[in-house]
Amino acid sequence: MKYGVNEQGYYGDFGGAYIPEMLYPNVEELRQQYLNIINDADFKAEFNQLLKDYVGRPSPLYHAKRYSEKYGCNIFLKREDLNHTGSHKINNAIGQILLAERLGKKRIIAETGAGQHGVATATVCALKGIECVVYMGEIDIQRQAPNVARMKMLGATVVPATSGSKTLKDATNEAMRDWIANPVDTHYIIGSVVGPYPYPEMVAQFQSIISQETKKQLLAHTGKELPEYVMACVGGGSNAMGMFYHFLDDEGVKLIAVEAAGKGVDSGHSAATTALGKEGVLHGSRTILMQTEDGQVVEPYSISAGLDYPGIGPQHAHLHKINRAKYVSITDEESLQAGLLLSQTEGIIPAIESAHALAYLEKMQFQKDDNVVICLSGRGDKDLDTYIKYFGY
């Protein structure tokens, strides 16, 4: 795969493992063992069985007919919102808990923004009877209260991150500190395609089930396994990477990644990383991130708790730089309106994250026989408060 990772853990200019010496043994252990473990027949059998019987895969590829009529093409929604726990995050959490088990780890830590990855991690820890600690920004704890309650009900300890913007970036910092302090018995389940190598590659491989299924399903729907467009929202970028993965080498498929413009790209309240960012190092990998002239991380903003991350995964940075995928952004307001439109035309209330991808349809022109696949990465239950406040219900 020409867009794949090299032996040093780089995608073109991006990736690698920029980590404190204290973390070197953990990351090195993972790097040396993860491929053998995930390619092992027993691992694959257990992973696939849990995806089928526990998560409910394959998730449907739904032809949204009324929505398609509005935009003048064939729109298919990859329904990751129908997975157990309500988003794509469970795919990776299951892969990593099985990995942690085989590495002999007795304690799991995770970071979460919207809470979906935290819920997925707490879920798999309950399934396997392993201690779980989730770090979450204090502000995200307030705006995603239902997910916090779920994590606690599943037996996880939720630790607020009270530094910086008190959101996802800060939760990630706290989780990294914990891992440095507890290197031997603890596995850190990173929820996105970010962090030091091998995390971006590992998470992408666990999420690649999304595009693997999509090809077969689209063939069944249309007689062709390749669509004209594949779209997904991007914060760190795990649902997008999963959605793009098996289309990367199909150069005719246009890949569109939608970031959060927040209150506007130039408003100072945004998370449009590729528009505003420069190359640098964030959370253990070289990537594109929003930073000041002297290299301080700029606080990101989005109404969506899952997209307000100041960087993107290194694969995305690479795909952006070589123009294999197009990176665009959508404002808070545009995403909320798109969420309402899907709810009222198809009876599906999407997560605000996913609604960012839907909103970009307004800015595109299609031929009537174009096939467009959009990753519906999560369901909107967790965002009802935000929708209610905005629309005044």
Provide structural commentary:
This protein is α/β, with parallel strands linked by helices and 393 residues long. It folds into two domains: 18-50 and 89-195, Rossmann fold (3-Layer(aba) Sandwich), CATH 3.40.50; 56-87 and 204-391, Rossmann fold (3-Layer(aba) Sandwich). It is 42% helix and 18% strand. The chain is built from 16 helices and 14 strands. The protein has helices spanning 24-38, 41-55, 65-71, 89-102, 116-128, 138-143, 145-153, 168-181, 199-207, 209-222, 238-244, 273-276, 314-321, 332-346, 352-359, 384-391; strands at 10-11, 14-15, 61-63, 74-79, 107-112, 131-137, 157-161, 186-189, 229-233, 254-262, 278-282, 285-289, 325-331, 371-376. A six-stranded mixed beta sheet has the order 3-4-14-9-10-13, sandwiched between helices. The chain has a four-stranded parallel beta sheet with strand order 7-6-5-8, sandwiched between helices. Strands 1-2 form a two-stranded antiparallel ribbon. Helix 11 links the parallel strand 9 (229-233) and strand 10. Helix 4 (89-102) runs parallel beside helix 5 (116-128). The model has no long low-confidence stretch (mean pLDDT 96).
Provide a brief overview of the structure.
This protein has 393 residues and is of the alpha/beta class.
Whole-number total of structural domains: 2
Q: Numbering strands along the chain, what is their spatial order in the largest sheet? A: 3-4-14-9-10-13
Q: Return the CATH topology of the largest domain.
A: Rossmann fold
Helices and strands, in N-to-C order? EEHHEHEHEHEHHEHEHHEHEHEEHEHHEH
Helix content: 40-55%
Largest sheet: 6 strands, mixed
Catalytic activity: (1S,2R)-1-C-(indol-3-yl)glycerol 3-phosphate + L-serine = D-glyceraldehyde 3-phosphate + L-tryptophan + H2O
Pfam family, one: PALP
Keywords: Amino-acid biosynthesis, Aromatic amino acid biosynthesis, Lyase, Pyridoxal phosphate, Tryptophan biosynthesis
Protein name: Tryptophan synthase beta chain
